[in-house]
Write a structure and sequence with these properties.
The structure is a single chain. This protein has one domain. Helices cover 89% and strands 0% of the residues. The mean pLDDT is 82.
């Protein structure tokens, strides 16, 4: 057997490593950057669909329990307005308004707020939803920070293992070739 045939092992290993290196570099530096816009739009569509399906803000805002949780703070502000601020701002009115009248005004305010609060909150959320388009936000963010750059940073360690696997595959192919040559041609 000729000893120069043993060069087949390191040559095959080096070839496997180079092929894997070239494939990884092509994927990260050529193929993936060309896909950035398409990936950003797909991610934007996904985010828009996820937000519209899973995040029903109108239902959550108009929930009566939310209004009940807010009522103690609202009642406190109404009491402060009727008992302190109103008398400071319009002293003449304070002479004609007693406790029974302020209690009745307070009751009317609270009932009106309970009716008005869900409608106002729905209008606010509609405005926010129209201004806040998750699909466009994701596309804009991924256009500014391309997926290819994120993937390149995240793929450093796995690509080293990928190149080493190429080295191992090349070595195994060289070994199979060497055994094939030995048994069929050299004997």
């Amino acid at each position: 057997m000729s000893y120069w045939l043993l060069l087949l092992l390191p040559l095959s290993a080096g070839t496997g490593w180079l092929i894997h290196l070239a494939a990884a570099n092509y994927f990260l530096n050529r193929y993936l950057p060309r896909q950035d816009e398409k990936l950003a739009k797909a991610a934007g569509r996904w985010a828009g669909a996820a937000m519209s399906q899973g995040f029903n803000i109108e239902e959550k805002i108009s929930d009566p329990r939310l209004i009940e949780k807010a009522m103690p703070a609202i009642e406190k502000h109404i009491d402060e307005f009727l008992n302190i601020k109103l008398k400071e701002e319009i002293p003449m009115l304070a002479m004609f308004v007693g406790n029974k009248t302020t209690d009745k005004i307070r009751e009317v305010f609270i009932n009106q707020l309970k009716l008005l609060f869900p409608q106002v909150m729905l209008q606010i959320t509609e405005g926010v939803k129209n201004e806040l388009d998750p699909e466009q936000l994701v596309v804009k963010h991924l256009t500014q920070n391309p997926v290819s750059l994120l993937a390149r940073d995240a793929a450093a360690a796995p690509l080293k293992r990928y190149r080493n696997a190429g080295l191992l595959y090349g070595l195994l192919i060289g070994l199979v070739n060497l055994i094939f040559l030995f048994f069929f041609f050299i004997r």
